[in-house]
Amino acid sequence: IVEGLVAKATNVSAANPKALTVTGSSLKQLKAEDVTVEGNKVVSVTPAADGKTATLNLETPLLENKDYKVTVKNKLGTKEFTVKYTFTLAEVAVTTTTLEANKDKQYLQVTLNGVAADLASIDSLGYDIEFQADKAVFVGTSGATNVSTTGEIDETATATALNQSFNVKAVLKKDGKTAESKTVTVKVVSAATPAIGNIVLETSELELTKAVVSTKD
Asked: What's the pTM value of the predicted model, to 2 decimals?
């Protein structure tokens, strides 16, 4: 066996809830089926150009502060590692910048440390989230409101009509500490128009007089 062609893992750590980072050598040779994660599944492997690290993308998120057994095998044998995911909030961001007019069940989306997070995952990390807008745009018990714990948009509100816009931020709280996202502007637009691909004209009855055909044409 040529050792340079065998993936070797020397360490495994949790980069985020849905990704593990493997450190070692020749990791371009590492395949998803070579790694077993307790209670989870590796769906893909993304190695670095130098083969010294690789990202293992997981099927389901890891739970915080739980030990997971990770087994990495190659032609020379197997190695076992214990990995624990510990979350440290570095950044929260609102990623929704457009909403569709008159559409029901729309929610603002956020990322934690650059990774998309839903309300369930935020709750599992022990955080309370509150969306704060400068206009009454959220579903509330008494109609549209400026504050929401779900980020659900009231499509009947004046501020969410076509061509309107509002500013919003997300505020997370845990153990008396607060983290805020930057304020973003959300615009209300019409229903998305499907992209038009290549246009092919097949006819003997038509003479083209323009070198470029636009979507208007």
From this structure: 0.63
